[in-house]
Amino acid sequence: MRKRSSGFTVIELMVAIVLGGILAQMAIKGFGMVSSRLSAREAGTVFQGMLARTRAQAIESGLTTVLLADAAGDSVMVLANGRVVETIRFMERMGVDIQGPENVTRICMNPRGFANARCNSFESSIELSFVSGTGTETLTILPLGQVRK
């Protein structure tokens, strides 16, 4: 009579390791897709915050304040009185690409807190998209400065 030893064979261990590797790869890929969607959504929220800051700066200073969204440079900046108040480089900070109908989209806020349609670089509503991998967040900007998701 033969005595069986307890434990796993090399083949059983190799099968378990291969299956574990496949499951880990699937989890990492899923995490990457969720991460890109979250980055794009965060970029949209940051842009809305920058637009709100532009509006607040215009009301506070009593002067027209400008928000520039540079699709070519993937950055957004707030200009008040000819000086840069804040700049955010979306590709560097969040890995997000800004896409829009123009290379530079200009939104001017007057001291009453509304966009100045004569100063804006667009006359009707436009769409700005924030793209990170497979994730995309698209915002519609209306002529008076309102934002719709």
Task: Summarize the helices and strands and which ones pair or pack.
Blueprint: H1 10-61, E1 65-70, E2 75-80, E3 83-89, H2 90-94, E4 97-99, E5 104-109, E6 126-132, E7 135-141, E8 147-148
Antiparallel strand pairs: 1-2, 1-5, 2-3, 4-6, 6-7, 7-8
Features:
alpha+beta; 4-stranded antiparallel sheet; 8 strands; 149 residues; minor pseudopilin epsh fold; 38% helix; 2 helices; single chain; 30% strand
What does this structure look like?
The protein is an alpha+beta fold and 149 residues long. It has one domain: minor pseudopilin epsh fold (3-Layer(bab) Sandwich). 38% of the residues lie in helices and 30% in strands. The protein is built from two helices and eight strands, in the order αβββαβββββ. The strands form two sheets. It has a four-stranded antiparallel β-sheet with strand order 3-2-1-5. It has a four-stranded antiparallel β-sheet with strand order 4-6-7-8. Strand 6 and strand 7 (135-141) form a beta hairpin. The radius of gyration is 25 Å and the shape is rod-shaped.
CATH architecture: 3-Layer(bab) Sandwich
Report the average pLDDT across residues. 88
Shape: rod-shaped
Number of domains: 1
Structural class: alpha+beta
Q: Supply Rg.
A: 25 Å
Task: Count every beta strand, where a strand is a DSSP E run of 2 or more residues.
Answer: 8
